[in-house]
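Model it.
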Amino acid sequence: MGKIAFGELVRQARTHQGIPLRQLASQVGLSPSRLSRIERGLRPPPPLPQLRSLAQALNLPLDRLLQATGTPKEVLDHLCWSRALSAPSADLPPPLQACLSRKNTFLTPVISQEGALKRVQLGKVCLQVVSFSRKRRLKIVIPPEVVLLLPPQPPPQVSTPNLFPAEVKRLRLVGDLTNAVLSCPGFELNSLLPNASSHQLGLRKGCSLWAAVPVAAIRVCEGKEAEG
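Modeled.
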């Protein structure tokens, strides 16, 4: 069987199951006009949350939808396990969640891409992100709870994506969590981790460590969100 385009795959699955376009659009959080243009190949596939909703609504494997977008096979594992990421910030007051999200929001130029996998420049660091946008600059949000902190010794595997050195600039307790403000090469990043993990790492102001961000955990803003 030849490779089928993403929009055609969605259209075939939707019509096969007898789901009206407007109903599917409502289920996955898209406007009917945008879903129609996606099916006709006039718009790129939607962001990952809507892709997961499409997979569920159409009873299709997520990796099949992703392969139809041209996403390399080696990227699929990153995308499929990212839903299991914990989100300790869900227990934070909404104003604080919004504040940390704003501080971890960056406008980054795209320097290369392969299907849905794009490489963007943040400060002096090249990050891998997942996006189907055709724009050459992407507005990204790095949720503070997904920033992984690793001890400086031994050095992590250099093949680990989105790995960069960092230094603790400030620390503050937020209930059962520690907010570590990190000075990274050319940018500042907020992280959130349980207090027990902070103690285990021996975090203190001025200490050096490694930070890593899972590829699929980086949120790429699209539409009106990207314009704000």
